[in-house]
Amino acid sequence: MDTIQVKDKNFRLSISADEIGAAVTRIAAQMNEELAGTNPMFLPILNGAFMFASDLLKQVNIPAELSFIKIASYQGTSNGELTQLIGLNKSIEGRTVVIVEDIVDSGYTMEALLKKLTALHPKTIKTAVLLSKPQARKVEVPLDYVGIEISNRFIVGYGLDYDGGGRNLREIYELF
Prior knowledge:
Blueprint: E1 3-6, E2 9-15, H1 17-34, E3 41-46, H2 50-57, E4 65-66, E5 69-73, E6 82-86, E7 96-104, H3 108-118, E8 124-132, E9 145-149, E10 155-156, E11 172-175
Parallel strand pairs: 3-4, 3-5, 3-7, 7-8, 8-9
Antiparallel strand pairs: 1-2, 2-11, 5-6, 10-11
């Protein structure tokens, strides 16, 4: 499909399933090489990163652990002020940790998450993001594994939603 409707908005195809698959395969190969021997703890961020994490971890063939986490922030703010990290039920002290996120735009959420996790004394923290919006960045954050850089457009699909809809799409669509 070249165009779709999600709720009251129209979107056009931006990134095909094949392009997404190639980016995921490239990131997994890089991780298999660079993280070998570290037994990393992968921390996918819910809700958006579930599809990326699923496809990525199917191709990561080194010993690793997984714990999905969710972050809660102050209501009504988008400045990344995290109030709670939900779901991290194992110690990450001395561990190699890989945050798996669907998209980084402003960088505020990733910055706050890195601060929260650093306080738990991991050996190192790596970040893996499917999509990066450098034009939207307000704070610089380290992105170790980046699938695709995109323009500052509103997108939906492959885990990303518009008002709860569109997460299940295999492709990524942009608002038009």
